[in-house]
Amino acid sequence: MWLVFNNKLNDEPNLLIIGKSLLLSQKFEDTCKNFVLMMSLTKKVAIEKEFELESEEHGKYIDLLLSLFLGQSINYYKNYLKEIVKNSDIEILKKAKYARNYICHESTVDFLYSSIYSKKDYKWNMNLLEKYIKDIAEGDYYVSRWTYEFQEKESGSFYNKKAYINNIIEWIFNKKLNKT
Hints:
Elements: H1 7-10, H2 14-48, H3 56-66, H4 70-80, H5 87-105, H6 109-117, H7 126-152, H8 161-173
Helix pairs in contact: 2-3, 2-4, 2-5, 2-7, 2-8, 4-5, 5-7, 7-8
């Protein structure tokens, strides 16, 4: 089925919100997977000495890690990076994954079909969308912090989690939050 470019699709202001939400979702997934890739490669090469850099085994291992789905990457954190990631962090990552899946796979389906088959205005559930964006932003905060700390060898605690989440909400919804 083709997209039908009608006024509903052309004039919908919330599509920018969904687009920004998709960008956040992709950034979270990539950061989550890339941190798994960095940590596991470091562990394999430096500690376990399972293969040499630039070897065929190295390439196969990178391909394996890059092919993981987001949930599999989170399980990797749980099973192999226990010294870095607490169980409470795993729950945050799982919530972020669920939210990411909603935004990427479900958030626009009803709107899309209403634009094709219905003359009625579609009502976005902005409260649900904002909750999911907060969940993704919190997960992204953690994987971004771990990545920063891994690369820079210093604490990422200078960046406040609540401020990060609020900045994401303000950016996506183009609104200023009451910071009291």
